[in-house]
Write a structure and sequence with these properties.
By secondary structure, the protein is mainly α. The chain has 25 helices and seven strands. The chain folds into four domains: about 1-155, no CATH class; about 185-375, P-loop containing nucleotide triphosphate hydrolases (Rossmann fold, 3-Layer(aba) Sandwich), CATH 3.40.50; about 375-460, no CATH class; about 490-625, no CATH class. About 55% of the residues lie in helices and about 5% in strands.
Length: about 625
């Protein structure tokens, strides 16, 4: 309705200007001493009509949506209409003063009088000029905006992106954020760093596995987005196709930057026009410089205050290539050279050797904070706040579906039990999160019983990392061995085959694909995963991929130091050999000449539509054959 109203308003003003021009023409033929003023007014009315006709054409075009809803346009048309109506009224009043006057004019007994002085005409023309200029500017702004829209859409269509890499992707949607009462001082430190114009351009948050780095990343990314300073985010994840490497890091971040700032799209488009190959296969340094650094350097501030832009890069240690990790750190440090915007990068990782070497090369150009060195009382407070909140939710959800004696008391669990869990967890947030998933496991519907099993492990916990991981994962896994000792060996063999493959595969596969590649019945895979929902993300669909919740689960299973103490220990080398042998058998059963029915031998992979590949190649063998995918299993 607004669009129709805008078009109708323009048509009404066009008709009104034409009416005033017609009245002026009538005066021009009858008035002798004001011809110059009348012609000047007629000229301005002609210019105005031309501009209005242009506005009408644009409004009626498919691309005129933004202009049709412009408040600025409506205000301008309203003012112009009011001024023209005043002119029409005054001209008609004088022209139609009475029938006698018209009759006298007809017999030329009296000359018609022009109702305006020259200075009045100067003012009227000036007012109409201002309306016309404002209308022209509005049209130009709209056309410029349409050009920016076109550039933005073009750039976004040209930039390859890593699916689900951003903090607000569907894959990350249900991942945890910090509880409002946790990490308060840390989050404030990060906020202050982002605001401080004198701060270093990189904030490196590092910590060992399970200390909550990704949760913090999602939380600060969400906060930066809410405050309008988030430029982009990239959450590395080993084994998740494009998220496992750096090939699409800078194109993904560029796409997010362009989506937020259409003006930046113009500068990025110029880069792509000059070198269309810059978006694919170029060195990281060239992509960062051409797609991010240089375009941002061309932005201008209207207020004099530098625009703040923060990039969030999580789990950099999960990037596949060590050289890429070091290159990324070096490139991000160049953000300090920008003078047009204030670019910052928030980076999280484990303190692995490639990361430490990368930061050692830019010493003095970054701020860092070590999560596992935060004072123990602070970590205890934060984990306690998380556990209290989560266990309260588990209790309420359970009671909502239970009656009578099956309901949990309102003081469940006791403060002593919560404190014991806190001591078991410190400093690993992943312990708290995993144990809560174990306690609320819907397949058991027994939070109190599940919690009792967790508490059985309290006495044996030491302070080392791996013992903490034992306490995190053993309550879930030991349930698999409950019952007869006769089945123990077969259960463990099946566990190592199924779960060992899941944690070692470079790309997550579905239950159906796992069944095919491992050459075991689908029901067996499904059976083995049923009791592991607190450590694995097991979808309801057999076609959706099974994922680990956290990389520490893999660490726990393959740690060579636990070979003799962990009954679920997975031998990486033996598992790789088994998977490789399965791959060969799988390929032998599926491959045939011209499997995609292209009828053109030698067709390049880039020229084959992905839909054709997906329809002809099962998911479990695509990673083995298609070069764009990572290796089937990690080494």
């Amino acid at each position: 309705m607004e669009g129709l109203g805008a078009v109708a308003s323009v048509i009404a003003v066009i008709q009104l200007s034409a009416k005033v021009a017609s009245l002026c023409a009538e005066y021009c033929s009858a008035v002798k001493n004001a011809k110059s003023d009348i012609e000047r007014l007629q000229g301005e009315l002609g210019y105005l009509k031309t501009t209005l006709e242009g506005a009408r054409q644009l409004l009626e075009s498919p691309s005129g949506e933004r202009l049709r809803t412009s408040q600025h346009l409506r205000d301008n048309l309203g003012g112009c209409s009011s001024r023209l109506t005043e002119l029409e009224t005054k001209l008609e009043k004088t022209l139609n003063a009475g029938g006698m006057q018209r009759a006298m004019r007809r017999f030329r007994l009296r000359t018609l009088e022009w109702p305006f002085q020259s200075k009045d005409i100067d003012g009227i023309i000036g007012t109409l000029e201002r309306y016309r200029d404002t209308l022209s500017a509005t049209l130009q702004i709209d056309q410029a905006a349409r050009i920016l829209d076109i550039s933005q859409k073009f750039v976004l269509s040209e930039l390859p992106i890593a699916k689900d890499a951003s903090f607000d992707s569907h894959a990350e949607e249900h991942e945890t954020r910090c509880h409002p009462d946790t990490r308060v001082a840390l989050r404030q430190t990060i906020t202050n760093w982002a605001k401080d114009p004198q701060s270093e351009c990189i904030f490196w948050l590092n910590g060992m596995a399970g200390t909550g780095k990704s949760t913090i990343s999602r939380t600060v990314a969400q906060s930066f987005a809410a405050n309008g300073v988030l430029g982009g985010s990239f959450f590395f994840k080993r084994g998740e196709q494009d998220r496992g490497g750096a090939a699409l890091l800078f194109t993904t971040l560029t796409a997010q930057l362009v989506a937020k700032d259409p003006i930046l799209a113009e500068h990025v488009r110029a880069v792509i026009d000059a070198d269309p190959t810059v978006t694919t296969g170029k060195a990281l340094g060239e992509q960062f410089e051409k797609l991010i650094l240089n375009p941002l350097g061309k932005l201008k501030s209207d207020t004099g205050d530098l625009k703040k832009i923060v990039l969030v890069i999580d789990a950099l240690d999960e990037c596949e290539r060590d050289n890429d990790i070091r290159a990324i750190i070096h490139l991000l440090s160049q953000a300090k050279t920008l003078r047009s915007v204030r670019l910052r990068a928030f980076v999280t990782s484990r303190p692995e050797l490639p990361i430490r070497l990368g930061f050692s090369n830019i010493r003095g150009k970054y701020q860092d904070l070590v999560l596992h060195e935060i004072p123990k009382p602070t970590i205890e407070h934060d984990i306690a706040a998380f556990l209290k909140s989560r266990l309260e939710k588990i209790r309420n959800d359970h009671n909502a579906l239970s009656y009578g004696e099956r309901q949990l008391p309102m003081d469940w669990p006791s403060s002593q039990v919560v404190q014991s869990l806190v001591q078991m967890a410190v400093p690993l947030f992943i312990f708290a999160a995993t144990i809560c998933r174990f306690i609320e496991d819907p397949s058991w519907c027994d939070p109190a019983g599940q919690l009792a099993k967790v508490m059985e492990y309290q006495s044996g916990i030491q302070q080392s990392k791996i013992d903490k991981l034992d306490a995190t994962y053993r309550p879930t896994l030991d349930r698999l061995l409950a019952g007869s000792e006769v089945n123990r060996s077969s259960v463990l063999d099946e566990f190592r085959t199924v779960v060992g493959s899941i944690v070692l595969l470079a790309e997550p596969l579905s239950i159906r694909s796992l069944s095919r590649i491992l050459r075991i019945p689908e029901n067996n895979v499904d059976r083995r995963l049923k009791a592991l929902h607190s450590v694995l993300s097991v979808p309801a669909s057999a076609e959706s991929p099974v994922r680990t919740f956290h990389l520490s689960f893999r660490d726990f299973l393959v740690d060579p130091d636990k070979r003799n103490t962990n009954p679920f220990w997975v031998d990486e080398k033996a598992s790789h050999e088994r998977i490789a042998a399965s791959c060969v058998k799988l390929l032998d059963g599926y491959l045939r000449e011209d499997i995609c029915d292209l009828k053109m031998p030698g067709t390049a992979r880039a020229d084959i539509e992905q839909a054709i590949i997906n329809s002809r190649l099962p998911a479990e063998i695509r990673p083995i054959l298609v070069p764009q995918f990572p290796p089937l299993y990690s080494t």
